[in-house]
From TrEMBL:
NCBIfam families (alphabetical): F420_MSMEG_2249
Taxonomic lineage: Bacteria, Bacillati, Actinomycetota, Actinomycetes, Mycobacteriales
Domain Luciferase-like: 25-328
Ranges in coiled-coil conformation: none
Protein's name according to its UniProt entry: TIGR03857 family LLM class F420-dependent oxidoreductase
Length: 347
């Protein structure tokens, strides 16, 4: 079958998903994504082996047209001038292909590392400071985002300010994205009805802010396990689901958005392997251990909110998400070089 039948500018994919020790694997993954005709590659930043600036710079030099997105970094984890400098350097190296994806994360993380937690006001102001610096403006600021007496980037490439995409789950975050950002990144493991409700909230906020309909590009993240043996499918989908649902507060938010009873979260977190884990489980447990824990998740929590099975079945899931109003799907879990079956046959 002609690859062009399955290629789509409305598809992107993550590179280096999950726990990674070999950063160099990103080169082949990014090149595979471009060969498949994907629109965007996304990096899930993690301190240690997945530094945004280094990875984005590397991708810019081994690809020519695909967009390079952070999915996600955090506005308060870098000084505003350093973040803007990073972004505009990547713009210079890539010819304007960078997309800045940012999120809120959980307060416990920021307390643990000694950085300020985010508020809606600080997020909006941080984004404004970022854009102004990328335009070459001098910024004097004292407010929720901090105190900056005099900031400016003196040398800038002839490239546009990168789009800024906000990762959101609940209604307040979606409203923030609709009013103030260029795009919104929806979390993995949202059902189609949850995605549709999320899109409606973004569009409503967009209208309330007086912005043209469609100003905010909606990205839906979909965990994909296409044409894989059953054990690999479970390891990929179930293990990834555990890393989200086990985090206190975060799992409850996902369950609430999907309209699910949160009771299974207590059973999941009572598993002996999760005892004492404060951060993400995949920073401590092996994939085999995560699969063992995943057996406590209701089947619907993965089956109704991921794309698994044949290429044809996965594309049916993609079509349902597109029908829910999203502009672009971000495929997660399977790295780009494993997505070939989606583009070569219907399954």
């Amino acid at each position: 079958m002609d690859n062009s039948r399955w290629s789509s500018p409305a598809l992107g994919a993550y590179v280096l998903p999950g726990r990674v020790t070999d950063s160099g694997a990103v080169i082949g993954q990014a090149q595979a994504a471009e060969r498949l005709g994907l629109r965007t590659v996304w990096l899930s930043e993690r301190w240690g082996t997945k530094d945004l600036g280094v990875i984005a710079g590397a991708i810019s030099q081994v690809t020519s047209g695909i967009r390079i997105a952070s999915g996600i970094t955090h506005l308060q984890s870098r000084h505003p001038a350093l973040l803007a400098s990073l972004a505009m350097t990547v713009q210079a190296l890539s010819g304007g292909r960078f997309v800045l994806g940012v999120g809120r994360s959980v307060d416990a993380m920021w307390k643990a590392v000694g950085l300020p937690t985010s508020t809606n006001a600080s997020i909006v102001d941080h984004a404004d400071i970022f854009r102004r610096l990328c335009r070459g403006e001098k910024v004097r600021y004292d407010g929720p985002a901090g105190t900056y007496p005099s900031l400016r980037l003196n040398d800038l490439p002839d490239q546009p300010v990168p789009p800024v995409v906000f990762a959101a789950i609940g209604p307040k975050g979606l409203e923030l994205a609709g009013r103030h950002f260029d795009g919104v990144l929806l979390h993995p493991f949202l059902t189609t009805p949850a995605v549709r409700r999320s899109v409606e909230l973004v569009r409503r906020a967009e209208r309330a802010a007086g912005r043209p309909t469609g100003s905010v590009r909606v990205y839906a993240t979909v965990v994909v396990a296409c044409e894989l043996p059953a054990d690999e499918e479970l390891a990929l989908v179930g293990a990834r689901a555990v890393t989200y649902y086990q985090i206190p507060g975060f799992g409850e938010r996902l369950a609430a958005v999907n309209g699910w009873d949160s009771e299974p979260l207590s059973r999941l977190r009572s598993h002996p392997l999760l005892d004492g884990i404060r951060g993400s489980a995949d920073s401590v447990l092996t994939r085999e251990q995560l699969v063992e824990v995943a057996s406590l998740l209701p089947a619907a929590w993965t089956g109704e909110a991921a794309a698994v099975g044949s290429a044809s079945a996965c594309h049916q899931v993609f079509h349902r998400y597109r029908a829910a109003g999203v502009d672009e799907l971000v495929l997660h879990g399977s790295t780009p070089e494993r997505l070939g079956p989606l583009f070569t046959r219907a399954g």
